Amino acid sequence: MNPFKYGRIVVDEDFCSRPVIEEQLTNFILSKQNVLIEGERRTGKTSLIYETVRKLKSYRYLYIDCFEIRTIEDFCRRTVNAMISMEKRAGFIESLVKSLAHLRPKMTIDPLTGEPSIGLDAVTGARPDSIEGLMDVIADEYGKRKIVVVFDEFQDILHLKDAQAILAVFRGKIQFHTSIPYVFSGSIRGSMHEIFYDPASPFFKSAASMTVSNLERERFGEFIIAKFLHNGGRRIQKELLTAVFEIAQDTPGDVQELCAAIWDSTSSRQSITTDIIPAALDLIFSREQRVYENYLGLLTGQQLRCLVSLARLNGKAPFSAEFIQDSGIRQPGSIQKALERLIGLRIIYLVNREYKYVNPFFRAWLLGKGY
Ligand SMILES: Nc1ncnc2c1ncn2[C@@H]1O[C@H](COP(=O)(O)OP(=O)(O)OP(=O)(O)O)[C@@H](O)[C@H]1O
Ligand SMILES: [Mg+2]
């Protein structure tokens, strides 16, 4: 079986250990310190939280995913159902239903799994203070237990109407939940900063902060070599490993995706060199090509030239003479506009003054096509 996992949370043997930040998070949890975890996409934020809590053994987590949340009812429903999936006691579910009585909760039982879940009547219209009752249940139920409450993709709370009022209610409650560590996780370019660093925000300076960056090459490299070796005796050349990190721009999720494709393109006991890269990339391109073509359809000729030059010159100095020559775009203003459009389309992003591809395989595809 392919030992490389991507596009989902990894724990245990699929998780390459990160001693420094694991210890940091463990200490925050044990000292009941609320914490903000930021990082680029696919760097391993959610996996870090799961793995750290898993290793703490006696701790459990209440995990609430705020991804693309749209309404307060939606938020309440996700929180309630996270609680129910942890605790199916009848008395507990009853007290939850009571605390949300004004939202007309309806309990349903999945006929296949027998799992209970709660639906809320969107028409009745939840208000920011609807969250209060829910937060009280969290305090009553979990205040004396070893639990970590995790709000993932927390920045999406800002999509809600009355977001600031909701955050105020939220913060008003959790500041009294001193025995519960809360973890708020989100993407750097989301709006986590707006929530935690804007003095006008109710959450201003309310949590310690941690950053999840890419895994260091040396540690992650050893993890990868061992996976290839112990799952069919494949040996990989050092240069190949370096090439994988370069192509995947060191993003853990993309590194694993490329390794999975290499694994699928090779056989047991093979010694693998950089020669395998085109076949492995083709495997990824065949899955993603439609998305790439879709992107191209959205771009003007100038935007495409700008994108290709970023790929060729590795994201650096888009206003340099070299870039202007490569792209053939003479006006800095036009380059600026093209970059803004590419960022708006989420094709590239800016980090440490470098423009990076959100999907490094799109970059590899463009370069291979000779645009
Ligand atoms: N410690 C790790 N060891 C090995 N692979 C990892 C590790 N952390 C992350 N990955 C890789 O990255 C992928 C994404 O991990 P995860 O979902 O935890 O990241 P994330 O930062 O929460 O992503 P998103 O921004 O999409 O929510 C995993 O499927 C895995 O391939
Ligand atoms: Mg995540």
Overview of the structural elements:
Helix 1 (19-30) crosses helix 2 (45-55), helix 5 packs parallel to helix 6 (163-174) and helix 10 crosses helix 11. The chain has 371 residues and is of the alpha/beta class. The chain has helices at 19-30, 45-55, 72-86, 90-99, 130-142, 163-174, 192-197, 217-230, 238-247, 252-264, 277-298, 301-312, 321-327, 332-344, 360-369; strands spanning 35-39, 60-65, 106-109, 116-119, 147-152, 182-187, 208-212, 235-236, 271-272, 348-351, 354-357. The longest helix is centred in the last third of the chain and has 22 residues, at 277-298. Helix content is 49%, strand content 13%. It folds into 3 domains: 17-212, P-loop containing nucleotide triphosphate hydrolases (Rossmann fold); 217-298; 299-371, Winged helix-like DNA-binding domain superfamily/Winged helix DNA-binding domain (Arc Repressor Mutant, subunit A, Orthogonal Bundle), CATH 1.10.10.10. A 5-stranded parallel sheet has the order 2-5-6-1-7. A two-stranded antiparallel sheet has the order 3-4. Strands 8-9 form a two-stranded parallel ribbon. Strand 10 and strand 11 form a beta hairpin. It contains 15 helices and 11 strands. The structure holds adenosine-5'-triphosphate (ATP) and magnesium ion. The site of magnesium ion has 3 residues, from helix 2. Residues 45-46, 152 line the site of magnesium ion (MG).
